[in-house]
Design brief:
- The termini are far apart.
- The protein is 59% helix and 7% strand.
- The strands form three sheets. Strands 5-7-6 form a three-stranded antiparallel sheet.
- The radius of gyration is 26 Å and the shape is elongated.
- The chain has three domains: 64 residues, no CATH class; 274 residues, Fido-like domain (Fic-like fold), CATH 1.10.3290; 76 residues, Arc Repressor Mutant, subunit A, CATH 1.10.10.
- Helix 7 packs across helix 9.
- It is mainly α and 448 residues long.
Amino acid sequence: MKIPPTPPSYENILLNLKEPAQVKRMAEILVNGGIGPAPGGRYRHWEHLRRLQPPDGLSSEEWWAAVKFARRQTRRAIPLEDRDRRPFAYTLADPVFALLHQIDRDMGGMITTSDQIINPQTRERFIESSLIEEAITSSQLEGASTTREAAKQMIRSGRNPVDRSERMILNNYRAIHLIKDFKDEPLTPDVIFRIHSTLVDGTLDTVAGPNYLRRPGDDIAVYHDADGTLLHTPPPAKGISRRMTAMCDFANNGQPDAFLHPILKAIILHFWLAYDHPFVDGNGRTARALFYWSALSQHFRMFEFLSISGIIRKAPAQYGRSFLYTETDENDLTYFILAQLQVIRRAIDILYAYLDKKALEIRAVEQTLRSSISINHRQLALLGHALRHAGVRYTIAGHKKTHGVTYQTARSDLLDLASRGLLAQTKTGRFFSFTAPNDLARRLRTSS
């Protein structure tokens, strides 16, 4: 990944205007506000804007100066500072407002239109599926390598992980559940330490200080995996405790003198921890965990159903570039904010498509079973899954975990389906297992 060029200084561009006509033209533009912070609806970095045709009469540098002037009019600083004590800030540009509006609208619409989510009979199953997906993809972003099916089987069956990759995934799964326990409590360094220690339990090879924090002398840097380019050098370890306390104060109090949208706060916390890189390892996973904590603590409960890591994993270059744009352009967080808002927007679209698909599948199964003897919603969900995964094996422990019911209830569900010939029952040692037959669709038709 190439480091983007540092944009020219806004002040230097204005100081270098020599001709009276240039000075007059720029003064008119700046006073009249003819150029906004996001020309054409795009919040471009200098790397891209310099390649475009500027407005008539302006050079690329003059156009950039006008854009930067417009951005500074709504620029809001946050308590995060870089290595040289310069603050980070974000701009309230139209693309930010537009994406926040879409997220607010669609997350609210999900509550009213998706009876699968608000139905208490199926809510826990959808949450569990989302938690597992986020645990897997967040770990894969950090190098975990295992199949999705193996990871899901490990979590649902309760078996122990067999290698470091599975350990990372199980740790992520446990950390996400821990976040839900802390969502109604203020964020403190101790809470962050608990989340982080859960994420890295049994996976670290390096020696670290207390709570796995970096120590003075630890040479931590972020490099691009493909070409070894140095992408980011975190602030010195000496100030980590002070910076983490400031981050917690921001998480709990926001900006008292200005409204800060809850999603913006969650995204800023994500960036803050990733930028400071306080731990010897596991910073990316902890940063994403803080994002979820912040969203849930601010009552965006629908984020229980979203997986952002899968979107980031599909386009890691965009994620990394938004960091670089921020650092090279006067610590302008707007680039990272917009990139993450797009990730959330995409995650919502995927969730809607998933819900629509599930609704069609469930209706198809319901139609098949409509005239059969009564069957509960858990059995209905299992049969819907079994129709798409012939030969898959189910266990009482897995069914119990997926639906949040007692062992006896899960056992009764599976034994009942086996007695009807809809699952094949076997026993290994003291434990039963149940397999979906290859001709399940035919058996369902004949049983109805």
